[in-house]
């Protein structure tokens, strides 16, 4: 192993890393990234990588976008901070709320700003509880999420998340947060079962859970249109139609987590549009500012808003909000990001290049290590298996997807190993067809090297 650089040694001595094997990190050290341009990032030795994950599913306009830099600088010069507490306001927050209301996939009434996806979903949980108290139904508080769903890491949002590592030894999930099945055709389809049959079985299972718990105790359902961190899981056709029919029968609100799918990732402005989802409330973050600033939002419908108005009248305030809710610099950058999406027709760009992305992705389905290659728009995944015919996984201790990610890094490509031995891809939306070709060439080399490694 090469001796650790000075930066690496300083990192190990000082930085506590999120989502990292803290013990292993002491030996391997960090990958220190220093600069970026377009879809490329460069490490401290000058080596170039394609950012095949758009950071953490977020840098949709890529790196070094001068218009976004200028939007931040201009707002900092004008007024670097002011807040939204106690009725104060500012231009960028008002403008951003108007823009979000105009494009949101729900019947949008008001926008509540946060700084991250976790804060958005934590806020969703608190709003749902608050609203049901306002409506005089204090027992209707449970929230149903899904196994493998990812909704963040704060206490309530980590509880909504349906991944083992986010619960184990954190004493989570909180009581009253339940998980129904993941709509994962590759892993859950029974012999001869059609998409429609699988969707019906999943919706029936959701309904059985609601009836078991008592519909009068279940307040809301939360889902990502396409699950991201849980392994880029694309539900079977008719799934959301059937889920929404179940929710409607029991007066259960629909929370749509668009933190990854929002702003063009699937080729539609929101994932909800791609699947015919009609949510009550929507969470957004990440690509809202192309990750140039930390900002997210919860967009609620009129019914939710009116209940909150009522309850705040009773209590004297809506007692929730973060110092940085609607931070003016973040809001100004988000406004500029949404302007660029519109001016540059980002949806047109995604729909132009995604056939090439999906063609190269699907071709990797023939690779001996790949059980399934799946994708939609500009998000995709390879499900790694030991045996293609039986879909048998490798022993999780072998961590083959993590090995592929490490080899890809050597080849100059950043991808991510997701739960379930899955390699995820989510490049910046501005990627060109040639760059997609280069990305898959690098990934193919990593897969071939991994095949030699496992055999
Ligand atoms: N929701 C979804 C769908 C996500 O993918 C994420 C993060 O990856 C979150 C919520 C949490 O966002 P954050 O990491 O900004 O707290």
TrEMBL record:
<dbReference type="InterPro" id="IPR015421">
    <property type="entry name" value="PyrdxlP-dep_Trfase_major"/>
</dbReference>
<keyword id="KW-0670">Pyruvate</keyword>
<keyword id="KW-0032">Aminotransferase</keyword>
<dbReference type="InterPro" id="IPR005814">
    <property type="entry name" value="Aminotrans_3"/>
</dbReference>
<dbReference type="Pfam" id="PF00202">
    <property type="entry name" value="Aminotran_3"/>
</dbReference>
<protein>
    <submittedName>
        <fullName>4-aminobutyrate--pyruvate transaminase</fullName>
    </submittedName>
</protein>
<dbReference type="GO" id="GO:0030170">
    <property type="term" value="F:pyridoxal phosphate binding"/>
</dbReference>
<keyword id="KW-0808">Transferase</keyword>
<keyword id="KW-0663">Pyridoxal phosphate</keyword>
<comment type="similarity">
    <text>Belongs to the class-III pyridoxal-phosphate-dependent aminotransferase family.</text>
</comment>
<dbReference type="GO" id="GO:0004015">
    <property type="term" value="F:adenosylmethionine-8-amino-7-oxononanoate transaminase activity"/>
</dbReference>
<dbReference type="InterPro" id="IPR015422">
    <property type="entry name" value="PyrdxlP-dep_Trfase_small"/>
</dbReference>
<dbReference type="InterPro" id="IPR015424">
    <property type="entry name" value="PyrdxlP-dep_Trfase"/>
</dbReference>
<dbReference type="GO" id="GO:0009102">
    <property type="term" value="P:biotin biosynthetic process"/>
</dbReference>
<dbReference type="GO" id="GO:0009448">
    <property type="term" value="P:gamma-aminobutyric acid metabolic process"/>
</dbReference>
């Amino acid at each position: 192993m090469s001796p650790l650089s000075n930066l690496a040694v300083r990192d190990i001595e000082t930085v506590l890393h999120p989502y990292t094997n803290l013990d292993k990190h002491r030996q391997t050290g960090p990958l220190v990234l220093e600069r970026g341009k377009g879809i490329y990032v460069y490490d401290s030795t000058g080596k170039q990588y394609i950012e095949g994950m758009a950071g953490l599913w977020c840098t949709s306009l890529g790196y070094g976008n001068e218009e976004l830099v200028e939007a931040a600088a201009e707002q900092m010069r004008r007024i670097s901070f002011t807040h939204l507490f106690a009725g104060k306001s500012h231009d960028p927050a008002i403008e951003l709320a108007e823009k979000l209301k105009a494009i949101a996939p729900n019947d949008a009434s008001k926008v509540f700003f946060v700084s991250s996806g976790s804060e958005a979903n934590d806020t969703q949980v608190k709003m749902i509880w608050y609203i049901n108290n306002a409506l005089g139904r204090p027992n209707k508080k449970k929230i149903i999420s899904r196994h493998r769903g990812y909704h963040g890491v704060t206490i309530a949002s980590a509880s909504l998340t349906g991944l083992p590592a986010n619960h184990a030894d954190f004493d989570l999930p909180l009581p009253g947060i339940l998980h129904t099945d993941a709509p994962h055709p590759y892993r859950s389809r029974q012999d001869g079962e059609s998409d429609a049959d699988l969707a019906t079985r999943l919706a029936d299972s959701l309904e059985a859970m609601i009836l078991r718990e008592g519909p009068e105790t279940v307040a809301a359902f939360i889902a990502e249109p396409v699950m991201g961190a849980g392994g880029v899981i694309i539900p079977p056709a008719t799934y959301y139609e059937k889920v929404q029919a179940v929710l409607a029968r029991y007066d259960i609100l629909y929370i749509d987590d668009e933190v990854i799918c929002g702003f063009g990732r699937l080729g539609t402005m929101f994932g909800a549009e791609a699947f015919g989802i009609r949510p009550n409330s929507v969470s957004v973050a990440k690509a809202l500012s192309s990750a140039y600033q930390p900002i997210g939002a919860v967009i609620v419908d009129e019914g939710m808003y009116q209940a909150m108005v009522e309850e705040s009248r009773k209590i004297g305030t809506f007692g929730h909000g973060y110092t940085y809710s609607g931070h003016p610099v973040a809001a100004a950058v988000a406004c500029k990001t949404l302007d660029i999406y519109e001016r540059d027709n980002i949806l047109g760009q995604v729909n132009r290049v995604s056939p090439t992305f999906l063609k190269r992705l699907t071709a990797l389905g023939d690779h001996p290590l790949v059980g399934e290659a799946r994708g939609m728009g500009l998000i995709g995944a390879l499900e790694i298996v030991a045996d293609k015919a039986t879909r048998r996984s490798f022993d999780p201790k072998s961590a083959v997807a993590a090995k592929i990610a490490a080899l890809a890094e050597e080849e100059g490509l950043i991808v991510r190993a997701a739960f379930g031995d899955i390699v995820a891809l989510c490049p910046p939306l501005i990627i060109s067809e040639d760059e997609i070709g280069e990305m898959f060439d690098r990934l193919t080399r990593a897969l071939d090297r991994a095949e030699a490694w496992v055999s």
